[in-house]
Design goal:
mainly alpha; 2 helices
Length: about 60
């Protein structure tokens, strides 16, 4: 077998092995905290400043 065909076969087998064992991917590095009026009032303040109503964004 030629070296290029052997390398191509090894790449294909490795790709199939990786795709067969892949798990679910979760978006761990990206989060929007302004998805609602409650979270807009709570944006980057932490859970200590939990917004209870949409009126929180006006204060």
């Amino acid at each position: 077998m030629k070296a290029s065909k052997k390398n191509w076969l090894m790449v294909c087998v490795a790709g199939l092995a990786v795709s067969a064992t892949a798990a679910d991917a979760f978006a761990a590095g990206f989060m929007l905290r302004e998805q609602s009026s409650e979270y807009l009032g709570n944006s980057y303040a932490g859970s200590a400043a939990k917004a209870q109503s949409p009126a929180t964004i006006w204060y």
